[in-house]
Predict the structure.
Amino acid sequence: MKIYNTLSGRKEEFVPIEEGKVSMYVCGPTVYNLIHIGNARPMLVFDTVRRYMEYKGYDVNFVSNFTDVDDKIIRKAIEEGVDASVISERYIAECKKDMEGMNVKPATTHPLATQEIDGMLEMIETLIEKGHAYAAADGTVYFRTRSFKEYGKLSHKNLDDLRGGNRSLLVSGEDQKEDALDFVLWKPKKEGEPYWESPWCDGRPGWHIECSVMSRKYLGEEIDIHAGGEDLVFPHHENEIAQSEAANGMPFAHYWMHNAFLNIDNHKMSKSAGNFFTVRDISEKYDLQVLRFFMLSAHYRSPLNFSAELMQAAQNGYDRIVTAVENLNFLMQSAAEGEESAAEKELEEQAGAFAAKFEEAMEDDFNTADALAAIFELVKFVNTNTDGEHTKAYLAALKKEIAVLADICGLIVEKSRELLPEDIEALIRERQDARKAKNFARADEIRKELLEKGIVLEDTREGVKWKRA
Ligand code: AMP
Ligand code: ZN
């Protein structure tokens, strides 16, 4: 399995620290609002990475935090006149609803920053003891960037350029810092803000320290994979590396994975420009499975553009898979029991080639676009090689192959068949009887009556099917 590692700037063979196990940390959202479809991209991408690894037999310890203390949360709490925890708890619950809708598995652990303050105080103290951090006169604690020789290794940035660019910060009142690149580990409280006691001042942690601490607590000092959106490479992940490696004295994450951004109609998503959708907005127009399909239709390291046309294409693609499974279910209802024929066994083996193609795509840095293409080829094969003459065993084997591959992508392809009210079922039966008796006038009348009730009938080779208008 090959993974593109931002740290080395190339694809590398994945070798876990412990055989058969994967430890993975994905930076989660700041919970002050409903999540938007940009936030959904890392959720869907890394959930799919996790699912593929589980399919390959790895035991995956998947940790993803909620940042529940932050300026934006506090601002919203002040606006509404409530406690910050009211805001964060509300949006964590909403985020979990959206995750469920998108069929994103809950993490093994979803730690909350506010529940991990003790660990943060401890790591900050270690950093001060080791000379990697210092407290300023007002109680702000900064990380001493110069003390960590490898600073910049993830983002491949030239530190002198960065220092030049940040010099204005020193001029604008942040002159308690020793160096323009020093960043905050702990900051003093402001009036009306949540705060915790510390040896330096009553205050709250900076953003970066929470991930170093939660990752260590739930996964250990050295982990396999750390992931998030590409905007997190600098400074967030660069700072996490500095904190963790300076405090623990060992390498932090072996593989750093970053998804590219999601844009809308070829523009950066922005609230002020009005080109901004929450996952909830999308769920009102589409099945969230369609959003999932859309996200996976591009490679995670390619920018992806959200548009109505591409969502329609995703809807069509997703429907094609669901319809193939529906057809198989339909054929299976009246298919012969008993063993597969030799010819069927041969076809089943041929179908196995698409699973191999799917895996090949996923092994190459999770190329979900090609993996979905392999599912389509399988669907086409299934559509051309199944009819009412086949055994149930053969049809079931093909169905299982589609379902297993779709499940790795987190796509639910088998909708539980909706039961129709008894009066409608009775009308459908009456129409079939009328057709048998060649009373086509009555049959047509019933078809119209059902249409008025929103049920469309379709007479197929295999029998009558219905769908909602
Ligand atoms: P935030 O709540 O801003 O910390 O973001 C949570 C996660 O969503 C991070 O991994 C971000 O990198 C990611 N993210 C935010 N906006 C986008 C976007 N437009 N496209 C892709 N990922 C994004
Ligand atoms: Zn983080």
